[in-house]
Amino acid sequence: MQYILFVGIIIAIIIIAKLLSWPFKLIFKLVANILIGLVLILLVNIFGSPIGLHIPFNTITALVAGILGIPGVILLVIFNYII
Predict the structure, then answer these.
(1) Mean pLDDT, residues 21-45
(2) Do 37 and 69 touch, CB atoms closer than 8 A?
(3) What pTM does this model have?
């Protein structure tokens, strides 16, 4: 009887740990995307300035670059050329 209780507690701990680890992975991925997006926006502003390409760094561009990452920065460059 004690062994069944012990195994049940171990399984419950594993399930709880797995459920709590998902948000940390999501937060880590979002922070990594924000940093990559920030660096890419800065690189676009540095190397794009001779051809008139400038992406302002504000809340909207930070969110787009942070959530979408590299495709978000490419989207911002395309929007900059269209508008």
Answers:
(1) 84
(2) yes
(3) 0.66
